[in-house]
Amino acid sequence: MRTIKLTLAYDGTAYAGWQSQSDRRTLQQTLEQALEQIVGERLRVSASGRTDAGVHALGQVVSFHTESPLSVDVLERALNAELPRDMAVIAVDDAPAGFHARRDARSKRYRYVIRDGRQPNVFERNYAWQVPRRLDDARLARAALPLVGTHDFSSFETQGSPRATSVRTVHALEIVRDTVDPDRLWIEIEANGFLYNMVRSIVGTLVEVGRGARDEGWPGEVLAAVDRRAAGRTAPAHGLFLLWVKYDLPMATGQGGQ
């Protein structure tokens, strides 16, 4: 039995999120159906995180077990031929026995894309939150500072899957203005883990500061409140992208055959 680590990119617009559902099209079901066609096994895959409906990924990581002798190169080519055009396999690797995409993740980085120009961009309606006024980048950066570090992020958690703790460590929270397109801004957050809707709740709170509706110190006060009612709105799902997931485990090699 082999363990496979698969890195996947997808446009989440047409899907009801990652997790399988009985009555709606999801990313997990689509991937599992493609794998079954290729390896002839009914497989269950595990992702590093369950992205919501409309959320996108540049580097989602998935693990699964298989008896297939197909090489990782063959699996990659076959999956990209079988999957719909809004999903793409970036890499396939043999992983150490017991590797699990979610449990073994050490950190993740998300990007939230905002367009704050005067005119909306119809071609980015599924890939950016279009805010109708220019945000103050410097205010955003200063307001974000108290959220970096190890904290209880209960104020930024929407009720969802039960967690053993709401404490997470945010390694970086960066505000970046696109130098090519000044109407595009993104907020990137890297952490050792995320609560349900944590990134989108942080973004929604910071945007209130960026547009001048709240003081720069407000996000720190929200954090200290440990109460979701203290925070701003949850930003729309379609501006969110999972960039990458980091692992400490070395990949195994030479386990597949043609």
Annotation keywords:
single chain, alpha+beta, Alpha-Beta Plaits, 2 domains, ten-stranded mixed beta sheet, 29% strand, globular
Biggest beta sheet summary: 10 strands, mixed
- What general form does the structure show? globular
The helix count comes to 5
For the termini, the CA-CA separation is: 16 Å
Give the proportion of residues in helices: 10-25%
* Tally of DSSP β-strands: 10
**Which topology of the largest domain does CATH recognise?**
Alpha-Beta Plaits
Strand content: 25-35%
Folded structure, characterized:
This protein is α+β, with helices and mostly antiparallel strands. It folds into two domains: 2-103, Alpha-Beta Plaits, CATH 3.30.70; 107-243, Pseudouridine synthase I, catalytic domain, C-terminal subdomain (Alpha-Beta Plaits, 2-Layer Sandwich). The protein contains five helices and ten strands; from the N terminus they run βαββαβββαβββααβ. Strands 1, 2, 3, 4, 5, 6, 7, 8, 9 and 10 form a ten-stranded mixed sheet that branches. Strand 8 and strand 9 (184-191) form a beta hairpin. Helix 1 crosses helix 2 and helix 3 (137-144) packs across helix 4 (198-210). The longest helix has 13 residues, at 27-39. The radius of gyration is 19 Å and the shape is globular. The two termini are 16 Å apart. The model is unreliable at 252-258 (pLDDT under 50).
Brief sketch in words of this structure:
With 258 residues, the protein is an alpha+beta fold.
Secondary-structure map:
Elements: E1 2-10, H1 27-39, E2 46-47, E3 56-66, H2 72-82, E4 87-95, E5 105-115, E6 129-130, H3 137-144, E7 149-152, E8 167-177, E9 184-191, H4 198-210, H5 218-225, E10 240-247
Parallel strand pairs: 3-10, 5-6
Antiparallel strand pairs: 1-3, 1-4, 2-3, 5-9, 5-10, 7-8, 8-9
